[in-house]
């Protein structure tokens, strides 16, 4: 029992509980990576690493490394490559209307954890929040931290805020619009994402879509889908859609 417990502790520290850092150049086994000032502060002061396994990621490639203090630097010696592909097998775009700050940031975090490739914030007529200033730095930081936490190989791309009428510029192979009106009977999400190489799901604001917005998107070849019998809050709908796409596409691998 002691040996089993030690094994699971080792497995947790090495593969689950370890810290991850995105780096700015490619490394190889045997290389010594020198942490940036920000990374050094997080590693030494915040989480207090010393002689522990970390995960380094560059351009979709992961590496395990042993981190330790070396003089005035904090470094990590690369010991092996991580051969597990942690990304979804499709290009998944989430277009989500601007909603209240704390809810929108929660959507960013959870969408990243669930494997979204690209996020497109947009405004529509019933948005209670409008884009007033550039928050790209904050949004990118949220996504980077979420990607490190869940051990992704890439940080999702977040686009500048656009108007709903411009969503067609980002269309994918399969383009879906979550719409709750009873007069439009959409297919279930899990029924329409089979065998797709790229998917775009559009989630509206707290106030929902106006009918003319839906009509315009449908004219641009967006298909309405149902997210179930209950009316979901905007942030719930976004996370639910991400979870379904993640589950169905990974199951198909």
Question: In terms of topology, how is this protein built?
Answer:
Blueprint: H1 2-16, E1 19-22, E2 32-34, H2 37-46, E3 52-58, E4 61-70, E5 73-82, E6 91-97, H3 101-113, E7 118-123, H4 136-149, E8 157-158, E9 162-163, E10 174-178, E11 187-188, H5 189-192, E12 198-203, H6 211-219, E13 223-226, H7 234-251
Parallel strand pairs: 1-3, 6-7, 6-12, 7-8, 7-9, 10-12, 10-13, 11-13
Antiparallel strand pairs: 2-5, 3-4, 4-5
Structure description:
By secondary structure, the chain is an alpha/beta fold. The protein has seven helices and 13 strands. A hairpin with a 2-residue loop joins strand 3 and strand 4. Helix 3 runs parallel beside helix 4 and helix 3 runs parallel beside helix 7. The longest helix has 18 residues. It is elongated, with a radius of gyration of 21 Å. The two termini are 35 Å apart. About 3% of the residues have low confidence.
Short recap of the structure:
By secondary structure, this protein is of the alpha/beta class.
- SSE series: HEEHEEEEHEHEEEEHEHEH
Q: How large a portion of the residues is in β-strands, by DSSP E?
A: 25-35%
What is the number of E strands? Answer: 13
Low-confidence stretches: 5-12
Q: What integer value in Å does the Rg equal?
A: 21 Å
What helical percentage do the residues reach?
Answer: 25-40%
């Amino acid at each position: 029992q002691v040996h089993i417990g030690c094994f699971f502790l080792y497995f947790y520290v090495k593969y689950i509980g370890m810290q991850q850092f995105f780096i700015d150049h490619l490394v190889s086994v045997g290389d010594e990576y020198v942490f940036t000032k920000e990374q050094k502060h997080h590693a030494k002061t915040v989480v207090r690493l010393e002689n522990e396994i970390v995960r380094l990621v560059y351009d979709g490639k992961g590496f395990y490394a042993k981190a330790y203090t070396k003089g005035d630097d904090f470094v990590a010696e690369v010991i092996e490559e991580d051969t597990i592909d942690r990304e979804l097998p499709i290009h998944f775009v989430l277009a989500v209307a601007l909603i209240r700050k704390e809810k929108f940031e929660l959507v960013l975090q959870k969408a990243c954890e669930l494997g979204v490739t690209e996020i497109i914030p947009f405004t529509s007529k019933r948005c209670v929040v409008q884009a007033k200033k550039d928050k790209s730095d904050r949004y990118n930081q949220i996504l980077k931290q979420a990607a490190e936490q869940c051990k992704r190989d890439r940080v999702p791309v977040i686009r500048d805020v656009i108007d709903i009428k411009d969503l067609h510029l980002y269309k994918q192979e399969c383009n879906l619009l979550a719409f709750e009106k009873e007069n439009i009977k959409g297919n279930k999400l899990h029924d329409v994402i089979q065998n797709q190489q790229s998917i775009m799901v559009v989630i509206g604001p707290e106030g929902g879509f106006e009918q003319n917005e839906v009509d315009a998107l449908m004219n641009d070849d967006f298909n309405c889908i149902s997210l179930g019998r209950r009316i979901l809050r905007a942030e719930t709908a976004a996370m639910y859609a991400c979870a379904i796409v993640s589950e169905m596409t990974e199951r198909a691998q």
